[in-house]
Specification:
Its EC number is 2.5.1.19. The chain has about 425 residues and is an alpha/beta fold. It is about 30% helix and about 20% strand. The protein has two domains: about 15-30 and about 245-430, Alpha-beta prism (UDP-n-acetylglucosamine1-carboxyvinyl-transferase, Chain), CATH 3.65.10; about 30-245, Alpha-beta prism (UDP-n-acetylglucosamine1-carboxyvinyl-transferase, Chain), CATH 3.65.10. The protein has helices at about 30-45, 60-70, 100-110, 130-140, 175-185, 205-215, 250-260, 280-285, 320-330, 350-360, 390-400, 420-430; strands at about 15, 25, 50, 75, 80-85, 95, 115-120, 145, 155-160, 165-170, 195, 220-225, 230, 240-245, 265, 290-295, 300, 310-315, 335-340, 365-370, 370-375, 380-385, 405-410. Bound molecules: shikimate-3-phosphate (S3P) and phosphoenolpyruvate.
C-alpha cells in the first residue's frame, strides 16, 4: 500500500483588505466537477475525446493521473484542450487520490473494470472521508475490495476486467459522489446498473443531475424518474468534445467581494445553459443583498455594500457553505444555515473548522449538528487556519476584505481547485483585473 502523499510546505498569506468597491471582469478556471466527469466518461468511451477549457488544478491532475495509471492515454500538455484516448483498463496500478472526493469516489468503480490489483491512498485527511457505502456497493456487485473495517482508505481493488452489474442499495447521505461514482461506470457493466439510495436525503442534488446530464451526452440511457433510484442501461459511451464551463463554486468568493464592497464582478465565459447550480446561487446572493444578471458579457453580480443575513437550507449547494458563512459574518442581521451535516466529511470537518476559526477572529457563531448559526459582530485580525481546505482559504479571503490582518496559515491549499487563487484575488482587490 503506498504512503499518503507528502504534504507541501505551508504558504502563509495575509488576506488583502478592500479600500474601495471591487469592480472587475474575471476569467476563472474550469469547473472541477465537469472536468472530473469529462475525464472519467472519456476514459470509458469507445472513441477519442477532448476537453476544452479544463481545470488544471491538483484534483483534476490527480484524476488524469489515476486514469493514466489504469492505461488511458491522457494528454494535458495544452492548457486549453486536453485529449483523452480510451484504452483497455489494466493494473497493477497505484492511485493517489490526494484529498479529491471525485478521485476517491469515481475511480474505485472504474478499477473494478480493470484487470489487476489497483491500490488507492491519499492525504491523511482523505483517510477520514466517507467511502464505506461505495465499498459495500462494489462488493455486492461482486468486485473484490480489500479495505480497513472503518470503510475508508487505504483500499485495494482486485479488478477482474468486467463487472456483471445489476442492482445495488446504498446509503449515500454522506456524499452524492457515492452515487455519481457508480453511475458514471454503470453502462460498462454487462447488465448495466440500478442504484437505489436508502437513508437520510442525498446531498448535492445538482451534482447528481450533472452526472445524469453528462452520461446522456455520452450516449448513455439513464432513468432518474423515481426519487432515489437511478437506472443506467448497459451500452457503449461515445467519445466527444466536452466544453468545460467556468467553476461556479470557485467563483463565489469573487462574487462575494462584490457584495461586501458594494462593487460589481462579472464572470466571463458563462454559458447560456449550465449544468451548475446557477439558480440556487442566484437566489442565495439575491437574498443576501446582491443582484445577479446573465448577459452576453457573462454572469454579473452587483452588491450595495450591505449584506443581509438569511436562513437557508444549503444541502443542494453545500460546498458554498464556507464562503456564505464569511458573508453572513459581515451581514446586518443573523443567519442560520442548515442541511449540511455531511460537510463534516468534506476536506475537513467544515462546520467545526468554520466555528473554531471565525470564533478566533472574534465572531459569534454556533455550530449545530447540521449547520451554523451566525450573529454578526465586529471581527478582528488574527491567524485563520485552513486545515488543507481550499474553501476555508476562500472564506478567510472574503472576511479579510473587511477585516484587516486576517492571516491565512496556508493559502497553498487553494491549489486543490484553483492554484491561481492568491494572484487572482490580489488583482481583484487592488482593482487591477
Ligand atoms: O460530484 C461532485 O463533483 C461534487 C459533489 C459534491 O459532493 P458532496 O455530495 O459530497 O457534497 C460537492 O460538494 C463536491 O465539491 C463536488
Ligand atoms: C467538497 C469539495 O470537494 P471534493 O470534490 O473533494 O468532495 C469541495 O470542493 O468543496
Amino acid at each position: 500500500m503506498g504512503n499518503p502523499t507528502v504534504t507541501r510546505p505551508p504558504q502563509p498569506w495575509t488576506a488583502p483588505t478592500a479600500t474601495e468597491a471591487v469592480t472587475a471582469a474575471v476569467r476563472l478556471p474550469g469547473s472541477k466537477s465537469l472536468t472530473a466527469r469529462a475525464l472519467v466518461l472519456s476514459a470509458l468511451a469507445t472513441g477519442p475525446s477532448t476537453l476544452a477549457g479544463p481545470l488544471r488544478a491538483r484534483d483534476t491532475e490527480l484524476m488524469a493521473g489515476a486514469l493514466r495509471a489504469l492505461g488511458t492515454h491522457v494528454s494535458t500538455s495544452d492548457d486549453a484542450r486536453w485529449l483523452v484516448r480510451a484504452h483497455r483498463l489494466v493494473g497493477p496500478a497505484h492511485v493517489d487520490v490526494g484529498l479529491a472526493g471525485t478521485v476517491l469516489r469515481f475511480v474505485p468503480p472504474i478499477a473494478g473494470l480493470a484487470e489487476g490489483r489497483i491500490t488507492f491512498d491519499g492525504d491523511p485527511q482523505a483517510r477520514r472521508r466517507p467511502l464505506g457505502p461505495l465499498i459495500g456497493a462494489l462488493r455486492s456487485l461482486g468486485v473484490r475490495v480489500d479495505a480497513p473495517p472503518t470503510g475508508s482508505l487505504p483500499l485495494t481493488v482486485l479488478g477482474a476486467g468486467r463487472v456483471t452489474g445489476g442492482e445495488v442499495v446504498l446509503d449515500a447521505s454522506a456524499s452524492s459522489q457515492l452515487v455519481s461514482g457508480l453511475l458514471l461506470v454503470g453502462a460498462r457493466f454487462d447488465r448495466g446498473l440500478v442504484v437505489r439510495h436508502v437513508g437520510p436525503p442525498v446531498p448535492s442534488a445538482p451534482h447528481l443531475r450533472m452526472t445524469v446530464q453528462m452520461l446522456r451526452a455520452a450516449g448513455v440511457a439513464v432513468d432518474d424518474t423515481t426519487p432515489d433510484v437511478w437506472a443506467v442501461e448497459p451500452g457503449p459511451l461515445t467519445g466527444r468534445g466536452w466544453e468545460i464551463e467556468p467553476d461556479l463554486s470557485g467563483a463565489l468568493p469573487f462574487f462575494a467581494a462584490a457584495l461586501v464592497t458594494g462593487g460589481e464582478v462579472t464572470l466571463q465565459g458563462w454559458p447560456h445553459h449550465s449544468a451548475q447550480p446557477i439558480e440556487q446561487l442566484r437566489a442565495l446572493l439575491q437574498r443576501m443583498g446582491g443582484e445577479v444578471t446573465v448577459t452576453a458579457a457573462g454572469l454579473t453580480v452587483r452588491g450595495t455594500g450591505r449584506v443581509h443575513g438569511i436562513d437557508a437550507d444549503l444541502s443542494e449547494v453545500s460546498e458554498l457553505t464556507p464562503v456564505l458563512t464569511a458573508l453572513a459574518m459581515l451581514a446586518d442581521s443573523p443567519s442560520r444555515f442548515t442541511g449540511v451535516a455531511h460537510i463534516r466529511g468534506h476536506e475537513t470537518d467544515r462546520l467545526a473548522a468554520l466555528a473554531r476559526e471565525f470564533t478566533a477572529l472574534g465572531a459569534d457563531l454556533t455550530e449545530a449538528p447540521d449547520g451554523l448559526e451566525i450573529r454578526p459582530r465586529p471581527l478582528r485580525g488574527g491567524v485563520f487556519r485552513t486545515y488543507h481546505d481550499h474553501r476555508m482559504a476562500h472564506a478567510a479571503a472574503v472576511a479579510g476584505l473587511a477585516v484587516p490582518g486576517v492571516e491565512v496559515d496556508d493559502v497553498g491549499c487553494t491549489s486543490k481547485t484553483m492554484p491561481e487563487f492568491p494572484a487572482l484575488w490580489s488583482e481583484l482587490v487592488t482593482n487591477k483585473s
